[in-house]
Amino acid sequence: MTDHAAPAKCPQCDKPVDPKYRPFCSKRCADLDLGKWLNEEYVLPGNAPVEGIDPGDREA
């Protein structure tokens, strides 16, 4: 009895992953994902920014 993992699927289109573009199936899907990051369509969870405080003013 052998257990085989299901082939990884591209998070953009669900096609099988191409190792060259992992975790995507193609350059197109990788570029679509990058575009979403650059257009701020993805958001990482965290605390809301506090009004009146500049994040660049934090002490090291």
UniProtKB/TrEMBL annotation:
InterPro entries: DNA_gyrase_inhibitor_YacG, Znf_NHR/GATA
The UniProt record lists the keyword Zinc: yes
Gene Ontology biological-process annotations: regulation of DNA-templated transcription
Domain of life: Bacteria
KW Zinc (keyword) present: yes
Cofactor: Zn(2+)
UniProt cofactor note: Binds 1 zinc ion.
Residues involved in Zn(2+) binding: 10, 13, 25, 29
UniProt cross-references to PANTHER family, sorted A to Z: DNA GYRASE INHIBITOR YACG
Cited function: Inhibits all the catalytic activities of DNA gyrase by preventing its interaction with DNA. Acts by binding directly to the C-terminal domain of GyrB, which probably disrupts DNA binding by the gyrase.
Protein family according to the UniProt entry: Belongs to the DNA gyrase inhibitor YacG family.
Protein name: DNA gyrase inhibitor YacG
Organism: Kordiimonas sediminis
Gene name of the record: yacG
